[in-house]
Amino acid sequence: MSILNEISENLQRGKTKIVKELVQQAIDEGISPKEILEQGLLSGMDVVGEKFKKNEVFVPEVLVAARAMNMGTALLKPLLADDSAASVGRVCIGTVKGDLHDIGKNLVKMMMEGKGLEVVDLGTDVDPETYVKTALEQNCQIICCSALLTTTMPVMGQVVKEAEKAGIRHKVKIMIGGAPVTEAFCQEIGADKYTPDAASAADAAAAFCREIA
Ligand code: B1M
User: Fold this and answer.
1) What is the DSSP string of the chain?
2) Nearest CA to ligand 1 atom 77
3) Ligand 1 pocket check: which of 39, 101, 111 to mutate, most ligand atoms within 8 Å of Cβ?
4) Which atom of ligand 1 lies closest to the CA of 111?
5) The CA-based dihedral angle spanning residues 3, 202, 119, 27, taken in that order and rounded to the nearest 10 degrees
6) Which residue's C-alpha comes closest to atom 7 of ligand 1?
7) How far apart are the C-alpha atoms of 46 and 197, rounded to whole Å?
8) From the alpha carbon of 201, which atom of ligand 1 is closest?
9) Which of 41, 148, 155 to mutate to test the pocket of ligand 1 (most atoms within 8 A of CB)?
10) Residue with the nearest Cα to atom 23 of ligand 1?
11) What is the pLDDT along the chain (213 residues), one digit of tens a residue?
């Protein structure tokens, strides 16, 4: 079995310590951080997601897999970051109110930092007022919202409305993403940009900041 498959298998079983060791071994063997992330960690999380959907695994198993995923990504973080990039702008990011999923949001944050963006992490369960207040107080050019539940997606529309109400809509871009989010939804709520994955979110945010500068 390849080391990437081993990472995936052990992540599915929630073997945090082994995942950490295997990720380090893969790094030492010269496998690219992107391959380790996509073909090892994310591929394992996909399997867990499918099983969760079919009720073959339950919340505790998903939580230990998520913990193993976070351990693995923590090792990759410095390697995915591009130290040569100067600060290109500031964004605030969070998972919307009612939603506790943060693995994707953390990946977006990591990729954005890798592009030289300063990222204010608001965590999970973030209400619309907090995004807007933070953007105002910390001079963020972009508000980034993540949602994994169809029931919490509408909060993103409330963030757009809250920014309008606070009079900052013209100077703050609003980016959205997460598994159930689509381009059509982005247009429907009047957000500025939907991106399907963390890498394209980071590219789009850096481009917005360069545009604004
Ligand atoms: Co939850 N969960 N979960 N869960 N969970 C899903 C999302 C679900 C699809 C599983 C399923 O049924 N198949 C389902 C949602 C169904 C729906 O709404 N349509 C679901 C459910 C129902 C629930 C609960 C309600 C279950 C329950 O309690 N009965 C509950 C809700 C809790 C809450 O939030 N209030 C719940 C709980 C949990 C755990 C706590 C156990 C755990 C979260 C742990 C954590 O995040 N710390 C969990 C997990 C892990 C999942 C699955 C298995 C994996 C999610 C994940 O982390 N994927 C998920 C099934 C699945 O997605 N296949 C599922 C990996 C991650 C890298 O992908 O977050 O999509 P993702 O991020 C991607 C892109 O979407 C994008 O970039 C990332 C990759 O490049 N992206 C952005 C994300 N944010 C972005 C923002 C951007 C741009 C791109 O711009 C700003």
Assistant:
1) --HHHHHHHHHHTT-HHHHHHHHHHHHHTT--HHHIIIIIIIHHHHHHHHHHHTTSS-HHHHHHHHHHHHHHHHHHHHHHS-TTPPP-EEEEEEEBTT----HHHHHHHHHHHHTTEEEEE--SSB-HHHHHHHHHHTT-SEEEEE--STTTTHHHHHHHHHHHHTT-TTT-EEEEESTT--HHHHHHHT-SEE-SSHHHHHHHHHHHHHHH-
2) 197
3) 101
4) 80
5) 20
6) 148
7) 14
8) 88
9) 148
10) 149
11) 799 999 999 999 999 999 999 999 999 999 999 899 989 998 998 898 889 888 898 888 988 998 898 899 899 988 876 555 457 899 999 999 999 999 999 989 988 887 778 999 999 999 999 999 999 999 999 999 999 999 999 999 999 999 999 999 999 999 999 999 999 999 999 999 999 988 889 999 999 998 877
User: 209 alpha carbon to ligand 1 midpoint, in Å?
Assistant: 28
127/87 Cα distance (integer angstroms) = 27
> If you take atom 11 of ligand 1, which residue's CA is the nearest one?
53
